[in-house]
Amino acid sequence: MGGLENDATYNQNSVPSTNKTSLSPDSIINLDQGDPTLFEPYWRKMGDKCTLVIGGCDLMSYFSDIGNICWFLQPQLGDAIKGLHRAVGNAVTDGRHFVVGTGSTQLFMAAIYALSSPSASHPVSLVAAAPYYSGYKDQAEFLRSGLYKWEGDARTFDKDGPYIEVVTSPNNPDGAIREAVVNLGEGKLVYDLAYYWPQYTPITHPLDHDIMLFTFSKCTGHAGSRIGWALVKDRELARKMTEYMQISSIGVSKESQLRAAKILGVLSEGCQNLGTAASENFFEYSHRIMRERWESLQNVVKNSKIFSLPKFPQDFCNFTGKYTDSNPGDAPFAWLHSKEDIDWESLLREHKIIGRSGEKFGADQKYVRISMFSPPEAFTLFLERLSAIIDITNGNVAGGEESSVIKCS
Amino acid sequence: MGGLENDATYNQNSVPSTNKTSLSPDSIINLDQGDPTLFEPYWRKMGDKCTLVIGGCDLMSYFSDIGNICWFLQPQLGDAIKGLHRAVGNAVTDGRHFVVGTGSTQLFMAAIYALSSPSASHPVSLVAAAPYYSGYKDQAEFLRSGLYKWEGDARTFDKDGPYIEVVTSPNNPDGAIREAVVNLGEGKLVYDLAYYWPQYTPITHPLDHDIMLFTFSKCTGHAGSRIGWALVKDRELARKMTEYMQISSIGVSKESQLRAAKILGVLSEGCQNLGTAASENFFEYSHRIMRERWESLQNVVKNSKIFSLPKFPQDFCNFTGKYTDSNPGDAPFAWLHSKEDIDWESLLREHKIIGRSGEKFGADQKYVRISMFSPPEAFTLFLERLSAIIDITNGNVAGGEESSVIKCS
């Protein structure tokens, strides 16, 4: 799901580092949010190929496809989604119901609504294995719904009765490939597959779960369009998810749907030229960018005596037809860990870097999540500052002197 | 707010009467929803003036205006909204915070979230004077929120403590101009002004309430774009409404925002030529269409011995500079009443017309709401069938014979 996340305490002063921001040595670098504008140059290079023209009298009706369960889904978008999954090989679409949402954020809300039961005596438990995406908790709790209840870490969940487990794979924040962990009788699963695309992880096989969520934001970088989609096996669940969208927003922007259809179509076409002399495919391009960033980051972090990054297993990607190196990674976020008692978020803040503390993900302050999506200038400045932090912390650890580093409280 | 409404029991077989539907004498005419496609010809006539072109690399970021409380509001849309309210004179915008939503539907949810208190021991009561828009109840109840509780008709509300009253003006379903009715100390008001535009009602003065909701759908007929906006006096309320949008959908489609900005801009420009020999302004055009429909409807209903339509008071419209006739009306829905015990919805269904029963609006079965937005062919067929129903009911009433008409249960 989204990398901006649903930080209910979003701070107006915490200006995101965007491509439009000009940075100085004193600038605060905001790597809290995962705004994927780093892919913008690729789409610029595509020129008019992805340009959308909408006439003043187009798309006026609430309705898109009155014969479809999801009656507000533009058929072109449904076709483009199907074509893309077929080209990439990351999800089974045959016989699935497609539900479009205002980002996968709205679809997550729709899924937990659809999986809950209004006639139940207790709210259904909602869990995710820590470290989990920080937005789930906010989304589950902010309206104090009596339908579902956030119960935190799936690994320690042991209540009887129905539950919903969200499986985020690759995981946000740490990029790990995941399966369900609770595995009890009355469980329902929601797979959040926002990052199951070739630039972030090897595509090992087409996934085939009951409810799978994807988002345009993280697939191509078009976060501003707010388009997500769900592939749903069960007709009644798809109907209830559609109902959620109907009651909460009477459907989803048709302009965004048409634009997503166009861009996903161009993306699918590009997949046919993979590995040929033709122009670089978007997934090749974006994977290269992610890799280069991870290499630079690993080169900095390896000098630290106390900081580390997750290790990613080597795997064969069916899409690229290649084995991925196990190191460096290509995940959308860096999940930095300190083996010493350091409050990462505060330490970074001292050095004018905003990351998100592990505490928000059900982990602890010794972890911090850093977005790998920042504009190039911000990423470079981040690496410089991280190097300086590493020099300080290495010195402190070696000398055992009074540390200027903020310890965990 | 929206005319499709949030009918949680939306029936897939209940195909809406759209411009694309070809009707036969056996066709079911669906006048349940208020899909405003009847204004399409106007926008078609405008040619390229309202055409929007979006490049593949445009609008990629989550962010639109990082210095604004509503950080996902495209500045062009804020400017267009301000310009339009100034041109029409229906709402005060100076010093107001603008919050954009996925239709005014999402903004209504945001408003009741913002006006509730997570620390309160009881949910805040939510009321609206009957007959009220049928969607409010669904929106307030579907997630079983502990923050707010639907308490129905404002006229009979007498609980102590905080409450929220939604004032819909002109009212959906009956077109009445409204003020708050509860008027107790701890009340907060949300004004749903979806229909406070010159085609539906005289614009008597610029409204100046704490929270005012508008929607692109009903202003210009572009329902598919899902764009609504709120004008909010209090900064903290605007922040909380923005927070709602952030948690539930991380903002609002930027494509739709840009399109709304363009079309609202063209609309405002057109207002400068009002009443001149220049091309017909959209509000003149749409008002003329609504009037013509009401005249035809009144001409049919006046033959009935038992059916009636609401009376609209004469008023001076500052926008057109004219007094409106008190009869016929120009409201978006016809709120048909029967003085006999007739179950309107069932009666219409027998004659292949789908309306929405008064029961859904906190009234009774002797009322039914009919959308005045249907495509021309559907509206003509509706009038023919209504004439036939009136012939039958007149006969029955006159003769006192066994009625084929379905009585209220």
Automatic annotation (TrEMBL), chains A, B:
Residues 8-27 have a biased composition (Polar residues). The keyword ATP-binding does not apply. Residues 1-27 are annotated as: Disordered. Keywords: Aminotransferase, Pyridoxal phosphate, Transferase. It comes from the Eukaryota. GO terms for molecular function: carbon-sulfur lyase activity; transaminase activity. Its cofactor is pyridoxal 5'-phosphate. One of its GO terms (biological process) is amino acid metabolic process. Pfam families: Alliinase_C (PF04864). The keyword Transferase applies. Residues 29-389 form the Alliinase C-terminal domain. Homodimer. Belongs to the alliinase family. This is Alliinase C-terminal domain-containing protein.
